[in-house]
């Protein structure tokens, strides 16, 4: 069994060492993403596209499967020469869900406790007490109910928030009222206090956090984006903050990353900016998942996490 991992030399460790330990029976090679095409490169059984490359699939034309080392697959779909006949398999959770649950719970609790309000009062040296607000008085909505979104919804419900969920197809999550499809999006959005985006990046989800949709939220609502940056129309968010319709936002993903120093988000006290850290990849858990799926494929078994190219996730 031959496996090729696309990684620059500067990022080869710990990944190459972990793959060697997890699959000692395999021949393991590294593809240098920035090098010209090597027409004599031996063909791999499996490719791990851990880093963007313009030449990877010009060299590796027909592996049995291509793996990512993240839940996001956009960098792979943008690579030239990727055959849609080759299964593309994304990482499912691998330690990311607990991190993202903690991130969203922190943002939701900050909203419930009015910490952003008190931060602004501190800036203005204002001593004003506001009525206490329990999680049961806050409606939280989660867009995207995959492995991570469902975990976020369950965690919010466990903390006492009133929880709604929305997905392309009908889901059942204990403690959450779930909506499905475009025809139920309005009913899902209406009156939400904390809106959490956990959607993948697809043509259908691009721009879903737009002015019309966010205007349906409760007055003073808070937006949390841990999905993908292209879901949010940034200008619309700023306009709704300026008008007072929204009270704030907690943003971990952006259309352009790193977020440029001149971007207006940096200067807005209502916006908390974090550098795409809500769900960092944990190498050993990710490698263990990829290795287990490779062994399953070698036994002729089906695996989960296979991307539907038509849907983009």
Question: In this structure, how is the largest beta sheet organized?
Answer: 7 strands, parallel
Helix fraction by DSSP (H/I, runs of at least 4): 25-40%
Distance between the termini: 27 Å
**What is the residue-averaged pLDDT?**
97
CATH class of the largest domain: Alpha Beta
Strand content: 15-25%
What would the principal axes of the Cα set say about the shape? elongated
CATH topology of the largest domain: Rossmann fold
* Derived structural class: alpha/beta
Describe the structure.
The strands form two sheets. This protein has a seven-stranded parallel beta sheet with strand order 8-7-6-9-10-11-12. A five-stranded parallel beta sheet has the order 2-1-3-4-5, covered by helices on one side. The protein has two domains: 2-93 and 281-298, Rossmann fold; 97-273, NAD(P)-binding Rossmann-like Domain (Rossmann fold). The mean pLDDT is 97. The protein has helices at 15-22, 56-59, 74-77, 96-112, 115-123, 147-158, 185-189, 211-214, 234-243, 283-298; strands at 2-6, 27-31, 46-48, 65-67, 88-89, 139-143, 162-167, 176-180, 194-197, 221-225, 246-251, 271-273. It is α/β, with parallel strands linked by helices and 313 residues long. It is built from ten helices and twelve strands. Helix 1 (15-22) runs parallel beside helix 10 and helix 4 (96-112) crosses helix 6. Strand 1, helix 1 and strand 2 (27-31) form a beta-alpha-beta unit.
